[in-house]
């Protein structure tokens, strides 16, 4: 089966529909599947539930889907960098299911592993636990969290071969590997596309069996979410 497609739009053809659940990899702006997000925007699908650590920033990443009002609900951990997100949420135009970051990661991992639910101490006695089952184990209370599984996962990888085996690089190896396992269909964008056999099997993070389609995106823009600099010290004059 041919997995590599010429464009992101082609890679997502026939997969998108209104009211679907999409997982989108990335941490901040690092490792986001930007070309695939753009293709989602171009498709015009709406009513989306998006599972992602964050919602990008204004005008970048998932932020562009907020601009077009294509997202109905976010299941996220951190959304503090997006002013439009705050406006839509506070205005009742966007639903939000907040998760502690580790809980979100484990919910995704559990979904990919076929685990429907698990218990954690994180969030016990807080708003996070409201409406959820709390059970005692060994004298301690734990809250039940459900695993997450999506209709579609879109991920970004540093390198991939034509069978869909993926390698992520540094911080971009964040939510991407877990999300690649936790959906009916996973579509990956890769910076470097190589032939089968060119990746050392011990270096593969996501086996190709999880990846249905791919698109080669060489030289993607690497956005910097927060640029912090300091002034050069003033040289002393003699």
From TrEMBL:
Keywords: Transferase. It comes from the Bacteria. One of its GO terms (molecular function) is CoA-transferase activity. SUPFAM superfamilies: NagB/RpiA/CoA transferase-like. This is CoA transferase subunit A. It comes from Methylobrevis albus.
